[in-house]
Amino acid sequence: MVKLHHPGHVVTLAMMVAGIVLSKKAQLPKMAGEIPGQAKDKSLKLRMRRWVEHPQLEAELIYLPFAIQILQALAHNPLTLVMDASAVGRSCQVLMIGVVYKQRALPLVWLVYRGKIGHTHADCHIAVLEKLQPLIPAGAKVVLLGDAQYDNTDMLLWLEAQPAWQYVLRTAPQIYIHSELGALPIADIQLQKEQVLQYSKLDSPRPPR
């Protein structure tokens, strides 16, 4: 675990956490505007920026012990993980994986990159999954949830290689299912709530149940 080098670093970190919770934003000006006290927003923003840019402070490593404790505390049930991307800073995105707890996604690991939402590649998806994998408690079962942008062959092959992992990913309605009966677009499959269509690449789609 990386130690904070000065008591003031702990105070600044606590301010940043409070600013994120109160403002529901990850932008420094928004965070600074929610911190109570006599200090001006501008000085608080500069203080937070110095913390973020400090060469000896690695945010991920400071947070790592908390992520491990969260997973250990929830591992008695299957861990429901959510992969999602959000805009941060200027022309940047953060690809994050969080664990679901009481209808909230608690962040575990993340990867920041330049680009737009939906423009990530499988390499980024796998990279953030590989950051998370060592944190999963031994014997824990995992269910990963994600949008259609993560439905790519390389990532699915990576998930298939993890015996304790399952996944539920959205997919594009234009994708076709191919079988000896022909090609059928997913959009033409009329499923009702709680119905399941099971399909194996070795046989035809089975009727919804």
Explain how this protein is built.
It is built from six helices and seven strands, in the order H-H-H-H-E-E-E-H-E-H-E-E-E. With 209 residues, it is an alpha/beta fold. It has three domains: 7-57; 60-171, Nucleotidyltransferase, domain 5 (2-Layer Sandwich); 173-209, no CATH class. Strands 3-2-1-4-5 form a five-stranded mixed beta sheet. A two-stranded antiparallel sheet has the order 6-7. Strand 2 (92-101) and strand 3 (104-114) form a beta hairpin. Helix 5 (122-132) runs parallel beside helix 6. The radius of gyration is 21 Å and the shape is elongated.
List the keywords.
five-stranded mixed β-sheet; 6 helices; elongated; Nucleotidyltransferase, domain 5; 209 residues; 23% strand; 7 strands; two-stranded antiparallel ribbon; alpha/beta
Tell me, what is the CATH class of the largest domain? Alpha Beta
- Helix percent reads 25-40%
pLDDT averaged over residues: 84
Strand order of the largest sheet: 3-2-1-4-5
Radius of gyration: 21 Å
